């Protein structure tokens, strides 16, 4: 079972909106030591990969690979872009620096209109890094490309020999289940990306997870994975419900990449800095509310509350 932190690459501090590369080493140590996360997905959604320039994406990937050496198990770099050329350049770069895999989203401005067109695009990117495992990153709510993952997977390995698996960031569990069911004879990785539904996906055959909350709820989620693996489903469900209580709370306040950064700063103590425009920094009110919730669920230690805290999830 692999758990990936979706925060991966991190833009940090700086009033100028520049990336603070110098804290990536600290970030690696935090994920490994405090959250038990050793598989990293760099330059994805949470890392605002699509808001970065190509040279920034290259440099972020290099930092994660360098700082993660001998500490992390796997680093997958997201190399999706609107321009096939840029995507290929990033794929080639990922291979050169020694990444463990690449992932690609569907291009989302001039969109592929059917499965074959999408696969043709993915194939050209994969071919730029012919020795690297390739993942299709399915996130239809953000790309607007609604081609079902189940369809995309049909015959994909024949077209993309390096195809390794799917990162599935959608709530359509019928589609996800069918991806697994129809590919049982293959050794694909099925990485699930909706953290609040991970347990349901595990039941259907998810082999790992990539998500934003593992940056600060990695340890909690690992407890759920362990319970699931030892078939203690009641305990696994308790863990999932606890995680849901938090996500449900923040979703109602307005939750996204900016808010993830604020929570990460709060929990890790590493200054994650503001997001890049068009995203806006999370409000102080959001962070205060999220902090109170984390404490009440015992996701952040708060000794004064512990004894009488009936809602605690520890
Ligand atoms: C739309 C979105 O940001 N989804 C997140 C989830 O982890 C999400 O934040 C979480 O399930 C809470 O809804 C991940 O799927 C994103 C992700 O893995 C990435 O950063 O590439």
TrEMBL record:
<keyword id="KW-0456">Lyase</keyword>
<comment type="similarity">
    <text>Belongs to the DapA family. NanA subfamily.</text>
</comment>
<dbReference type="GO" id="GO:0008747">
    <property type="term" value="F:N-acetylneuraminate lyase activity"/>
</dbReference>
<dbReference type="InterPro" id="IPR002220">
    <property type="entry name" value="DapA-like"/>
</dbReference>
<feature type="active site" description="Schiff-base intermediate with substrate">
    <location>
        <position position="167"/>
    </location>
</feature>
<dbReference type="InterPro" id="IPR013785">
    <property type="entry name" value="Aldolase_TIM"/>
</dbReference>
<protein>
    <recommendedName>
        <fullName>N-acetylneuraminate lyase</fullName>
        <ecNumber>4.1.3.3</ecNumber>
    </recommendedName>
</protein>
<dbReference type="Pfam" id="PF00701">
    <property type="entry name" value="DHDPS"/>
</dbReference>
<comment type="pathway">
    <text>Amino-sugar metabolism; N-acetylneuraminate degradation.</text>
</comment>
<keyword id="KW-0704">Schiff base</keyword>
<comment type="subunit">
    <text>Homotetramer.</text>
</comment>
<keyword id="KW-0119">Carbohydrate metabolism</keyword>
<feature type="binding site">
    <location>
        <position position="46"/>
    </location>
    <ligand>
        <name>pyruvate</name>
    </ligand>
</feature>
<dbReference type="GO" id="GO:0005737">
    <property type="term" value="C:cytoplasm"/>
</dbReference>
<feature type="binding site">
    <location>
        <position position="210"/>
    </location>
    <ligand>
        <name>pyruvate</name>
    </ligand>
</feature>
<keyword id="KW-0963">Cytoplasm</keyword>
<feature type="active site" description="Proton donor/acceptor">
    <location>
        <position position="137"/>
    </location>
</feature>
């Amino acid at each position: 079972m692999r758990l990936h932190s979706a925060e991966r690459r991190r833009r940090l501090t700086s009033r100028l909106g520049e990336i603070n590369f110098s804290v990536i080493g600290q970030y690696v140590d935090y994920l490994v030591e405090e959250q038990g996360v050793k598989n990293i997905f760099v330059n994805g959604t949470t890392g605002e990969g699509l808001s970065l320039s190509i040279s920034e994406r290259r440099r972020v990937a290099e930092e994660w690979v360098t700082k993660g050496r001998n500490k992390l198990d796997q680093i997958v770099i997201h190399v999706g872009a609107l321009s096939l050329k840029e995507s290929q350049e990033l794929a080639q770069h990922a291979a050169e620096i020694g990444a463990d895999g690449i992932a690609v989203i569907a291009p989302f401005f001039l969109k592929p209109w059917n499965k074959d067109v999408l696969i043709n695009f993915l194939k050209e990117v994969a071919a730029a890094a012919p020795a690297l495992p390739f993942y299709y990153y399915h996130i239809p709510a953000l790309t607007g490309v609604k081609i079902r993952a189940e369809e995309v997977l049909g015959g994909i390995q024949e077209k993309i020999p390096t195809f390794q698996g799917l990162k599935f960031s959608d709530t359509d569990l019928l589609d996800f289940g069918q991806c697994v069911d129809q590919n049982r004879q293959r050794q694909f990785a099925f990485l699930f990306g909706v953290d609040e539904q991970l347990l349901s996906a595990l039941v259907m055959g998810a082999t790992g997870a990539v998500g934003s909350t593992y940056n600060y709820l990695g340890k909690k989620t690992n407890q759920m994975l362990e319970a699931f693996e030892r078939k203690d489903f009641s305990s696994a469900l308790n863990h999932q419900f606890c995680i849901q209580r938090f996500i449900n709370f923040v979703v109602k306040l307005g939750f996204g990449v900016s808010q993830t950064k604020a929570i990460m700063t709060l929990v890790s103590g590493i200054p994650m800095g503001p997001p890049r425009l068009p995203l806006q920094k999370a409000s102080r009110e959001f962070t205060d509310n999220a902090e109170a919730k984390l404490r009440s669920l015992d996701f952040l230690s708060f000794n004064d509350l512990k004894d009488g805290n009936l809602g605690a999830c520890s």
